[in-house]
Structure formats: structure tokens, C-alpha cells
Amino acid sequence: MRKLREAVYTFFVRTGIARALSYFHRDKLVILCFHSMSLKDEHQFWPGVFISKEKLHELLNYLQRSHFNVISLDDAERHLNGEVQFKYPVVITVDDGWRSSITDLVPNFQAYQFPSTVYVTTYYCDHQIPVVNVLLQYWLWHKPSDAFDVEYQGQCYSFAGSVPEIVKAVETIMVSFDDEQKNDFLTAIAGALGVSDDAISSKRFHNANYEELKSAMASPLTNIQLHTHTHKLPTDSDAIHHEIQTNRQVLATQLSSEKALTHFCYPSGIWSPEHIADLQALGIRTATTLDEGLNATTEHPLKLKRNLVMNSRSLNQFIVTISGVTDTLRWMMGKTRT
Q1: DSSP designation for 208
Q2: What backbone torsions phi and psi does residue 230 show, to the nearest 5 degrees?
Q3: 2-126+205-333: CATH, from 3.20.20.370, 3.30.300.10, 3.30.70.1290, 3.40.190.10
Q4: pLDDT tens digits, residue range 85-128?
Q5: What pTM was estimated for this model as a whole?
């Protein structure tokens, strides 16, 4: 099936259909969603989040030589508002604030002179420890196990079950630990599983710290924006306001930036119409989802669609997506979300 899909993507590109449809969609805004850079084998573990250097340059080289026009999110907002008009506009966004997205991915965008917006969730910036659930899944991908024991501070902890069950059990135990204890406990788990703990020391699964974020912001091409504090968007108004206001206050204080924090990304792209009024009350001007597709100038600014960049997706699939072929097919099949 994968070979068949790739043959279809190749057909659309080589026949010129993709190029023709991109002309039809030339006023629509394309928003790309990146997450982080793979420094070792993370792109094999989770190709939907981590991108290899080779894949990244393949995509950026295409954008550089193509008819597409990479613009900033601020310019994209002006485009959607009708203040300016860009042809074939593309915006680069980066989710979460992973350390390698700041130290490795963003500098690549800067080298191509491409603006980018990084949506940062601040809990793991405050707490410089690995993102626990992702690190555990990575280790269990490397060394599958449905049961193991961990010796820590004179106690024996036993874990068994599926990967999600083990992850939840570990997180439950770690709730009462401070950051140093969490790091030590994770190191003990690595020993119990027989995997290297270099993923901790190399910070491959950390968020960036604030000095690293400041360094990225030294370039006018890089914009840091909102993504909640704990990567969760509740459903009740008070909790929504708390999550976003905490995120905003922490970033404003730690980054000492005069840049307005008014762009937002829904955690995991999950949104509900009930969120809109709260975001408006909080002064959010744009909000991005993970609903895939292109954005017409009539698109609601708090329901913006994006296209997920994945290491497992080919260049031809990328071209077909941003050219509007996939969008056209969705429209024909009535599969668009409003």
C-alpha cells in the first residue's frame, strides 16, 4: 500500500498536476508543523516528531528553489487579514520547545533565511529533566520489556505490563520526587533495562533552557510563542486561563522580551469550539491546530490548519500536500473540518 501511495504522489508531481493545483491555491496559507531534530536515532523511534538532518535539508532545499514563499507568522496573520497579499505563502512552526529544536533545527531555518515560530511549553523548561514519558518509550523501543525491577534508594520497584502501563506506573511513582531524584531514578531504570543513559546526559529528550531560547531569539527570524505551561489545554475557563497565563508570564519574565505573546498552538493540535471564546479573552490573535490542510483568507484565525512534517513522508508527498492536491481531494470527498 505504501508503494502504491508513493506512486500516486510521484504521478501528481511528475505530470505537473501538483504545480497546476498550487497555482489554483496560490493565495492560501500553508503552515508547516515541525517538532524536533534527530541527533542519533530518534527519527527512527518517532518519525512524526523527530526529523533527520538529511530529510530536513531535502525539504528546505525544495522550499528554497521552489515557487513557495516562506514568510513569518506575523506576515501570515496580515495576509489572512487582507492587509497584504502573498503568493504561495508558507509558514514554518515548531512545537513544544525541545532542546534540539532550538540548538539544531532552528539554526538550519536561519541558515536558509527562513523565519520560524517556536511554540514553547514551559514546564520542562523550568524543570531541566527529560520528558519522562517520551524517554521511557524510547528506551522500551530500544529494549522491549514487559517486566523489570528497579533498585533505588534501598527500595525495589517492580514494573510490568504494556508500554503505556509501565510509563504511567513510573510517572506515578516519580510524582513525589524532586528533579534530582527523578534524574537518578531514570538512570536506575536505564540500568535495569540494560540501555545507555546517554539520552539523559546528552539532553536529547529535554526542553531547551531559557538561555538557549534567548540565544535563538537573538535572530529576528525566530519567534517564541505560547503552547501552555504543561502541554495540556483543559476544558473549563479558569484552568484554560491558568495554563496560558502561566505560560505567558514565565516566557515574558524569563526571556525579557518585548515581543507580544499572542500566537498560540493547541497542545497536540487538539482543540474544541468551546476554546475559542477563552482564547479571544486572553488576547490570542492566531491559534494553530493539527487539522491538516491549507488556509483560505476566510479561515478563522483561531482554527488554523497545519501540515505535519514527518521523517517518514517522502519529498513527493510533501510537495503534493503543500501544493493543495491533498486539500483538493479532501474537499472532493467532503472531509474538511470547519
Answers
A1: P
A2: -115, 15
A3: 3.20.20.370
A4: 999 999 999 999 999 999 999 999 999 999 999 999 999 999 99
A5: 0.95
